Amino acid sequence: LVAPAPARGAPGAAGGRGGAGAAARGGPPPQRGERDDMALDRQLEILAVCGVGMGSSLMLKMTAEDALRSLGVDARVENTDVSTARGMSPDVVIGQGMHTGEIADLAPVVITVSDFLDKEGLEAQLRERLTEQGWLA
Description:
The chain contains 5 helices and 4 strands. The chain is of the alpha/beta class. It has a 4-stranded parallel beta sheet. Strand 3, helix 4 and strand 4 form a beta-alpha-beta unit. The longest helix has 17 residues. It is globular.
């Protein structure tokens, strides 16, 4: 028999919040909205959110990946809809104000954008907010 893999975001899950970094520190993984001072010893989990989780969030995902690459940040970016996002534990949520307002407590960093293709604008917001969290020097 093979034991099932832990659910995404569960302690010990590959790529989940906390994961090996939290275990290595000997403490529990951070809860939603808590600061995790790991200074990027793991891949960030980022959600690009829109109403349906297909069109605009996919464009935003690609813009975010470009901005994060320019910043040298190791991150996994997923695009999803607001309802699905509510059950996830990302580090960063990016979306339009009409959606980020609904899920403002979902992640330590929530970024509202108006132009899904503005890489420089998103890069500046990511730089500022990730630096505030201690995730970017």
